[in-house]
Design brief:
alpha/beta, globular, binds adenosine-5'-diphosphate
Length: 323
């Protein structure tokens, strides 16, 4: 009698995610006092949290530009240690990374100063073809935010939208996070026009109700939620701080997902960025929108209980993938 053995291998396919934006140098301290150096930026924070939670199942590629200076070289070295793949990073001779300073006053209020008008990241698309576009066929998901749009010149935005459209047409997941920073836009009307284009091209939108309210000049957060619910994005998440998160996929109903109870909020920096990473991680690996939002809420709740955008790895080890 002939025995046939069936050997079943479970091969978990690595999904490739590309994120585009700017990571700036951070100086933390007072004028002419000692200053602590660090780095961060919205899509960059999401990339790092995605890499931490993704394990071997996700490959996280960050697209931005840096200069050829020593600070740029050191940033790149650190980003590799953060688990990011860096072959989409362009080095532009003569340009520098953006910079911001955070100063905390006697009342605990944070004051930000920025030097980013000429930063290298703004020139990402100032080339006939970028590595991001050259490898367009590879991406399972592409993530950009309102800040990615704000820092690019109009021609760069066109290239970003064209890439997003091509990815969407071939069925990739195109994710837009509506981070709105009014001071990065010369005119709110231009911001509105670009955000509406982003909502059109996205297959998934992560919407902070406060930002939607500010961008469209709406009277209340409730109005902002109603307006966001009218957008025709196939999959949407609406975040409202500690209030339950709203999610909807396809023609399904809106569902509410409770946030986690946080006894003491220490610093809300990167709350939305980490939520995005948690949500996307779970969605790309097959969870339902409700399950994914619950995980996003867990991760964000952890992040806001620690100072800074990127919390220590040890503080979230239980939320990180082991594969
Ligand atoms: P953003 O950082 O984009 O402005 P939100 O303030 O809406 O966004 O917060 C993003 C996520 O962080 C929320 O969806 C929630 O998961 C979590 N979060 C924010 N504030 C709180 C809070 N006070 N308690 C629990 N979770 C919170």
């Amino acid at each position: 009698m002939k025995h046939r053995f069936k050997i079943k291998f479970t091969v978990q396919k690595t999904k490739k995610v590309a994120l585009i934006g700017e990571c700036m140098l951070e100086l933390h301290g007072t004028a002419f006092g000692a200053m602590q150096q660090s780095y961060g930026g919205d899509t960059f924070n999401t990339a790092v949290y995605l890499s931490r939670c993704g394990g071997d199942a996700l490959s996280v590629c960050y697209a931005t530009a840096l200069g050829d200076d020593p600070l740029s070289a050191e940033l790149l070295r650190r980003w590799a240690l953060d688990g990011l793949e860096l072959d989409l990073v362009r080095r532009i001779p003569g340009r520098l990374p953006g910079l911001y300073q955070i100063e905390v006053d006697a009342h605990g209020e944070r004051r930000f100063s920025f030097w980013r008008d000429q930063s290298a990241a703004r020139a990402y698309f100032d080339a006939e073809q970028t590595p991001l576009e050259q490898r367009a066929a590879q991406w399972d998901a592409f993530y950009f935010s309102g800040i990615s749009l704000a820092i690019l010149p109009a021609a760069g935005r066109e290239r970003l939208f064209a890439l997003a459209q091509a990815l969407r047409e071939r069925g990739a997941c195109v994710v837009f996070d509506n981070n709105y920073r009014p001071r990065l836009w010369s005119d709110p009307a231009v911001a509105r026009e670009n955000f509406l284009r982003a909502f059109q091209v996205a297959s998934m939108a992560l919407v902070t109700a406060d930002d939607h309210q500010a961008l469209f000049g709406l009277a209340s957060v409730e109005d902002a939620v109603l307006a966001a619910q009218q957008l025709a994005v196939p999959e949407m998440v609406i975040k409202r701080g500690a209030a339950p998160t709203l999610v909807r996929a396809g023609r399904g109903p809106w569902e509410q997902v409770a946030t986690e109870a946080v006894p003491r909020v220490v610093d809300t920096t990167a709350a939305g960025d980490s939520f995005a990473a948690g949500y996307l991680r779970r969605r790309l690996l097959g969870a339902t929108p409700v399950e994914a939002a619950a995980f996003g809420n867990r991760l964000a709740a952890r992040v806001i209980q620690h100072p800074g955008a990127l919390i220590p790895v040890a503080a979230m080890a239980d939320l990180m993938a082991t594969t």
